[in-house]
Design brief:
Layout (H helix, E strand, L loop, with lengths): L4 H13 L5 H27 L12 H22 L8 H21 L27 E2 L5 E2 L3 H6 L33 H18 L5 H18 L2 H17 L6 H17 L45
Antiparallel strand pairs: 1-2
């Protein structure tokens, strides 16, 4: 996500590189780096409290969710208002900016989307609203012996007032209770826009960076996670992970030691994502795909080499 160590490395390095030519851009990049480091700790805490795949664990602390959404909103605002308009002449920085834009919105989709697409989302109080009709006293339960009424004989002939006949018992559509995070960000379905942002970032990374570049791997690794967690396209996520690994194997460009180390770590993550949702015999695990809103789409990237038995990095990538 926006808290990826690879992204943080590039943020610091590229902010330092543009400091002399564009001090304002460098200042904003350092601010986003600080947000990313803070957000990383918050996301780790949230995932420890509640497992994303099963939803097991106690409900998330609201203060923690508020902090996560606020950091993501601020990071997204800085990118859209200051960074994206100024990265046209850069290569790695342009890819990183588009990737971070998708990453911050990915987090918002996980914790704030309406309707929810993840077990990490905060439940809306609308589900717990009372269905009692206004103006009528609530029924009293008489210790399990039935519903107690004050006047059993009279209540049978009592007709409700004309204004209370029929009609909905809750608020009209569009006027229901909002989620607790609504004061930070307007509720809505952010899934389609996040998917669009990821496709833009992936296309830009494929156009400007070679197959084993760690920033390109970071973009595709998070896209795999987004497809699995939010779009619920487990097959598309696995296919993209295997295709990305194949691109690394086929890349001939040289990399430095730091990028090589990052690429190895990301390949290991992608290898696990290539098996996510499968059983021990590479068969679909029951209930692996969560039902949710959003259109399931297959990523545009297709594997250049069919991967069947190659589940571990090749010699030299360990």
């Amino acid at each position: 996500m926006a808290s990826s160590e690879v992204d943080q490395k590039f943020l610091g390095k590229l902010a330092k590189a543009v400091e002399n030519d564009n001090p304002l851009l460098a200042q904003i990049l350092f601010k986003i780096l600080g947000l990313s480091i803070n957000l990383s700790a918050q996301l780790i805490t949230a995932r420890k409290q509640r497992r994303p795949e099963t939803g097991q664990g106690p409900p998330l602390d609201l203060d923690l969710v508020f902090h996560i959404i606020w950091l993501s909103r601020e990071g997204l605002m800085l990118l859209e208002q200051y960074v994206l308009p100024m990265v046209g002449n850069y290569v790695e920085l342009k890819v990183l900016a588009y990737k971070l834009r998708a990453s911050f919105l990915h987090i918002i989709v996980l914790f704030h989307n309406t309707p929810p697409v993840s077990t990490m989302a905060v439940s809306t109080p609308e589900n717990h609203a009372s269905t009692t009709v206004p103006g009528l006293p609530p029924n009293r339960v008489d210790k399990g012996k039935g519903v107690a009424r004050d006047d059993e004989d009279d209540i049978q002939t009592l007709e409700p007032p004309r204004g209370l006949e029929g009609g909905p018992v809750g608020p009209p559509p569009g006027f229901g209770l909002e989620p607790p995070t609504a004061f930070l960000l307007k509720p809505g379905d952010y899934l389609p826009k996040a998917h669009e942002y990821f496709r833009s970032a992936v296309g830009l990374a494929e156009q400007l960076l070679w197959g084993s570049h760690s920033l390109r791997l970071s973009v595709k690794t998070e896209y795999c996670a987004f497809l699995y967690e939010c779009v619920h396209d487990a097959e598309g996520s696995r296919r993209l992970a295997n295709a990305t690994i194949s691109e690394v194997y086929n890349a001939t460009e040289g990399v430095d030691d730091d990028m090589f180390t990052d690429a190895c770590e990301l390949v290991a993550v992608l290898t696990k994502m290539g098996k996510r949702g499968l059983g021990s015999n590479n068969t679909l695990r029951s209930g692996a795909q969560m039902s949710g809103s959003g259109t399931q789409e297959t990523p545009q990237a297709e594997p250049t080499t069919q991967i069947t038995d190659r589940t571990a990095p090749p010699p030299g990538m360990i």
